[in-house]
Amino acid sequence: MMLCRFLILLLLIVLSNGEVIRVDLNRRILKNSQLQRTEGLTKPKHLQSGTQPYGDFSDMLYIAKIGIGTPAQTFELVMDTGSSNIWVVDKATCQTLDCKGDNRNMFNKTKSSTLKSLNKDLEIDYGTGSVKGHAYSDTVEITGTGISIKNQDLLLAYSVDDTFRHQPIDGIFGLSWPAAAEGLNAPINGLSAVLDQHLFTVYMKRLGSSSYNVIEDGGAITYGAIDTNNCESEISYVNLVEDMNSRYYWQFNLEGLSIGDYSYEKNQQAISDTGTSFLVGPQKQVDNIYQQIGAFYDTDYGLYVLECDKISGLPSLNLKIGGNLFAIPPDQYVLQFNSTDTYCIVAIQTMDAGGPDWILGDTFIRSYCNIYDIGGQRIGFAKPKATAATKPKDNSASLSTLQPFVFVIIFIISIVIKL
Q1: CATH class of segment(s) 228-410
Q2: pTM of the prediction?
Q3: Mean pLDDT for each 10-residue chunk of the chain (419 residues)?
Q4: What is the CATH T-level fold of the domain 2-18+52-213, as seen in this structure?
Q5: Which of 269, 279, 293, 299 has its CB surrounded by the most CB atoms within 10 Å?
């Protein structure tokens, strides 16, 4: 089977000496004609729930710790609601600098007593690079929660392209629908079988740091329960789209948007995606948003910016979902990494390559807790209890006057999955 997708590559440069460091954040938008349902899964006698903290990398990337194997080997993975496979790097067969990355954790097959080969290989082709690996099953643990999935399918990569070389991650943990898993059993199936409730809650913080390190306490993922510690009790739910070709990801109707004097009131499709850093939408609508906030394009760095001292006077971006308005404040859709910065990044980008109209990434999820209701085939939104964004910390890395310390570029390119 060959399946076309789209990839958003997040390139993040964070060195004060001007050296380029690329951090690629993968975004896949998939189409498939079948959806494996989870309602009929056999439940164990002892169901569980638990919360684990998020690590925050410059408000661009959120990761969590996952244990794989027996005994568990710990990895820091992107918990990605836009894909449905788990992959990490195979220590024995992937020895290039691209595989090793910047001190990347790699899986040692000889140390797991529960690892089983599935006798097939998977290649993920990103156009400019790829990840290739062998399929296995093993025990997967959600570190710190007591939740584990036995015999979970995963990919151990034996080849990793240089687009992944400097990512501060060990791999990806897909939390989207089973049809997107491309022949492997999706983690969402295993989780549904062991969770007290068939749902999970994502809460993300805005720490405002540009340090080239993952900072702990960047939020939380709660499995099998609604996060009542970090999220308000009032939840607005919206059903996922009914089209069986689309239900493999967390897609719903976006009924309109407005900001300042601009509004767009036609019905569109949107997805909630923890693996995308920004809001991503159609060119014309995004251009109108830029105009309303006074953003301008910097040709040297390929992104839209505006003066940081204007953030407090900007209007909120309002999204209409399920008849309710969800306001994204300017301190969420404009990123300031240092209190002395002159220019700040606008965390909204364009996408004209097909798929749903809007990707609501971390910019939206920081503004509202997202409750991914697997059993109910719906998604819910609740205000976080800590509504104020953390003020940017003073770091050696800065966006001041657009020097080559920190900048972001998002590319959209087609990719192909081959089985």
Answers
A1: mainly beta
A2: 0.84
A3: 36 34 32 34 64 85 94 95 92 92 94 97 64 95 95 95 84 90 88 94 82 75 96 96 69 97 96 93 96 90 89 97 97 85 90 82 96 95 73 48 34 30
A4: Cathepsin D, subunit A; domain 1 (2.40.70)
A5: 279
